[in-house]
Give the backbone structure.
Amino acid sequence: MTTFASGTDTLTRDALTVLQPGFTGTTAPDWLLRRLGEGLASVGLFGRNIASPEQLAALTAQLRAERDDVLVAIDEEGGDVTRLEVRTGSSFPGNHALGAVDDVELTREVAAELGRRLAACGVNLNWAPSADVNSNAANPVIGVRSFGADTALVARHTAAYVTGLQSAGVAACTKHFPGHGDTAVDSHHAMPRIDADVSVLSDRELSPFRAAIAAGSRAVMSAHILVPALDPDHPATLSRPVLTDLLRGELGYTGLIVTDGMEMQAIAATYGIERGSVLAIAAGADAICVGGGLADDETVRRLRDALVAAVRSGELPEARLAEAAERVRELARWTATTTPAAEGAGREDIGLVAARRALRLTSTSPFTRLTEAPFVAALTPVANIAVGDETPWGVAAELARLLPGTETGSYTGEDAARATLEAAGDRRIVAVVRDEHRHPWMAAALDALLTARPDTIVVEMGVPQAPARGALHLATHGAARVCGRAAAEVIAGA
């Protein structure tokens, strides 16, 4: 491919403007600063870029010294998917916990406080909330990232979240259009498919996006999913019928359309990121998210050159690329000029308040709080890529704070129960699970533990789809740090 390296002509600047790349390190590399000077308008942040709020604020200041209207984006859903608190666990419960409480004002408050914290660090675009209706209980990638399986509930909480986040001056990016909830495949690994007909899609998948648009969501993220009823040939991210005809035309959306990560296998394995990016812009996307796994200048150069070459060959209309770049600049102007709502300092403890309210307790007999240190067995599934395995989860750390001497082990597979019983000895067992209903080995381990030790306490930190069991069963509706604390408080009577 020919390299177009001037970095000064309008076409090349527009091609850079539509990219949202990531990078490695906790300071901005020279290549990124140089690209900002050449027209790059957005940067995506991940857990690898964040060490502390102070460091993050210094990083975003470094970016703004090069370009004062830069969009600094982050994948901060709260709950299981956190970048701001990637090494400690989130101070905010995720969507499923908020849906379990079903108090839209609480959801708005949580999103507003999260937005305030992001804004204080210089972040002005959040790739959240997830508006997916988790209608498929076997979904391996959405689950607790969804407000729930009820369409109306998801719609009202999506709107509340958008309103709260944007009240802090942080643009919301509602995802994953047209809805990733009814999938059994993770698009990080392969192409999911939803075979629902148009009427089901309209009533179920699209309702939360209608609510988000009505609430003024400044951005919408596309999904790498195939929905044959809408487009039998192309995944949503690359589909003009989905992005232009449906989202722009039928739903009347006028804001920024961002792709999900183009390095995800649903796109990269079939089309490649360069070809995929050209097709996405041609279909109606305005910004190309890339950098979850590809985070270097070479990637940015290749994507820029692919877009320029597509325009020069006539494959991609120059006006479409110019329109996309202008939408990016329009959002940058909004973030630079919007005034956060004057609501005082907010409630720093609102995340813990929400996590406590989301807790659901089922006891098979009168429960007496623990006064002696237990053994915590974390029955640990493989984390999906969106969540990652860097972020700690469970109740052991919080129980150790309340009951010093608490010990823990992490177990996976058919040997989990035996290993737990051996390690626990005479201590009371607290078994912590995540989506028991999706993991037969986990259900079998609980069967064996409860047979041997009927007084075992069970804490479900995923979607509580399996029947409640154990001497005490606690459903936290998510694995955020505050969810673990709320559960530990009940177990220890605090």
Notes: DSSP finds 18 helices and 14 strands in the chain. The radius of gyration is 23 Å. The CA atoms of residues 39 and 407 lie 53 Å apart.
